[in-house]
Amino acid sequence: MTLQPIAVDKETAANYVSLSVTTLELLVRQGEFPPPRQIAARRVAFIVSELSDWLSTRPVSQLLPPINTGAPKPR
Fold first, then answer.
1. Could you write out the DSSP letters of every residue in 2-20?
2. Which of 3, 4, 24, 56 could form a disulfide with 14 if both were Cys (CB 3.0 to 4.6 A apart)?
3. With bands split at pLDDT 50, 70 and 90, how would you rate the model's confidence at 61?
4. Could you tell me whether strands 7-8 and 37-40 are parallel, antiparallel, or unpaired per DSSP bridges?
5. How much is the pTM?
6. Please, are residues 51 and 13 in contact by the beta-carbon 8 Å criterion?
């Protein structure tokens, strides 16, 4: 039996909603994204169901993602 995660770290949360970590942090600071929860003295995590709920409230786009979405940027 495989368990589905209920809480995830910041990097996984950003990946889950297709945002960069920087954008996720900005949205949290602005109060526009579900805040992380304290799960231990020095550990916080994002609740997956809250991420899903937030994502489902995003407006519907008439644009398709660009072809290179998710591709690493050349350096």
1. PPPPSEE-HHHHHHHTT--
2. 24
3. confident
4. unpaired
5. 0.78
6. yes
pLDDT in tens, 4-26: 899 999 999 999 999 999 999 99
| Amino acid at site 23 | T
Instruction: Record the tokens describing residue 35, joined without a space.
Output: 């805040």
Burial label for 48, CB within 10 Å (0-12, 13-18, 19+), is: middle
Strand 37-40 with 43-47, pairing: antiparallel
Q: Where do we find the tokens 């994502």?
A: 55
How big is the CA angle at 52 (ends 58 and 62), to the nearest 5 degrees?
30
